[in-house]
Structure formats: structure tokens, C-alpha cells
Write the C-alpha cells for this entry.
Amino acid sequence: MMIVCANSKGGVGKSTLATHLAVWLFDHGFQTALLDTDKQRSSSEWIREVEPQITVRVADTPEECLVIAQELSRSHDFLVGDAPGGLEDLSRTLLILADLAIFPTSPSILDVRSVAGATQVLRYAQGINGGKPEGRLVLNRMKTRDTISHELRAGAPKLGLEVAQHVIRDLQAYRDAAQQGTVVARFGRKGAQAAADMDALFSELLGAFMAVKQQ
Ligand SMILES: Nc1ncnc2c1ncn2[C@@H]1O[C@H](COP(=O)(O)OP(=O)(O)OP(=O)(O)O)[C@@H](O)[C@H]1O
Ligand SMILES: [Mg+2]
């Protein structure tokens, strides 16, 4: 089962979500791999620091991405793909192979406008891959008192992508955890609020897939 974090915009939280998701799945007892297709190598370097038992591979071309993804899918319960910023070849290849596509977006007007592009590419991948992947918009870096956060939450269902019910708050713990080479779930009390957000979101998104794997 393959899950991909993608979006046309940079800096929306793709690598943060991909890294936390891979560790979360590993901590639930699944054989987990991460495929980093972003030249910045954010998630692959981060995950090597956090959990050496997670298989980490990188791919720089769609051809490499296809071969490595197929190989990792055969040998692992879950494969998490981290896409580069943009919905070009590498992101499209990951999406065509995926069972679930997570599109993080943050509460800025430019990020929200980019969701239309993500929806189009999702439909393209679904057209090729017999209806897969399922797509979810994840509202990241949400602030309680911020008008645009409220507008995004209210307007998200109109953007053409199913919206995850659980949102991720804007919390310093994500940046601090990354800096110390860990994830919020392994960051003690400092990461507790953020870890609760991640746990709720991933349980919502992955619950059904995990049940299938556990059968
Ligand atoms: N919920 C959050 N709260 C606070 N900071 C966050 C949150 N999510 C992400 N960040 C921070 O935002 C920055 C961008 O996140 P990240 O690298 O995950 O985005 P990305 O979409 O992978 O970016 P790129 O397109 O460059 O690969 C990082 O500094 C990260 O720590
Ligand atoms: Mg990234």
C-alpha cells in the first residue's frame, strides 16, 4: 500500500507529513519504507536520523521512481512517497502508483489557489490507475484565531477534493523536532499537542488500510 504526500506548492508540509506518517506506521508495527523524490532530500535525511529501521530510498527520475516503488511495495506493508514541490513528472508518477494521496495545504491564499491544480492531477492519476488513488486535502498550519484558517476550513469542500476532518495546528514543535532529528511523537511533552494532531489525522486517513493489512 502506497501513500503519497504531494502538492503543486512548496513549503506546505509534504515532507513533515511524510516523515511523521512513516514513523507513525513503523511505530504501529508495520514494515515501512520511505521514497524521497525531492532533490532537497528533506524527508530521507530526516527519517534516517529518527528511525534507522525504516527503509529509505531516493529517486530522481520517473523511471527510477517506478522501479523502486514497485520493489518497495512488494517487500513492505506501507510505502510513503514524498513528492517535490510541483505536480510535474515525478509527482505524477508517484500519484499514478499510489493508493492514497495526501495534499497538505496551509492557510494562505496562494496555497489555496494551488488546490485546483492538485485536483486536476489527481483526476488524471485516477483516470490512468482505475480510480486510484483516493485523495485527501489536509489543512496544515492552522491557527485558531486566524481569519484565513476559518475561511479555508469553510471553503475547502468547494475545492473539489475531499477534506480530512482532522487538521494540523501551526506548532513550533514541528520545527524544533526536525532540528533535533526527531518527530513530535518522540519529543516528549514538548511534542504532545502536535503528536495528538498527527495521531488523529493518520488514524482517520489510514484506519481502513491498516485494518486490511492486519487481517
Ligand atoms: N503544522 C506545522 N506547524 C509549524 N511548522 C510547520 C508545520 N508544518 C510544516 N512546518 C514547517 O514548515 C516548513 C516547510 O515544511 P516542509 O518542509 O514539510 O514542507 P514541504 O511541502 O515538504 O516543502 P518543499 O516543497 O520545500 O519540499 C518547515 O520548516 C516545517 O518545519
Ligand atoms: Mg519537502
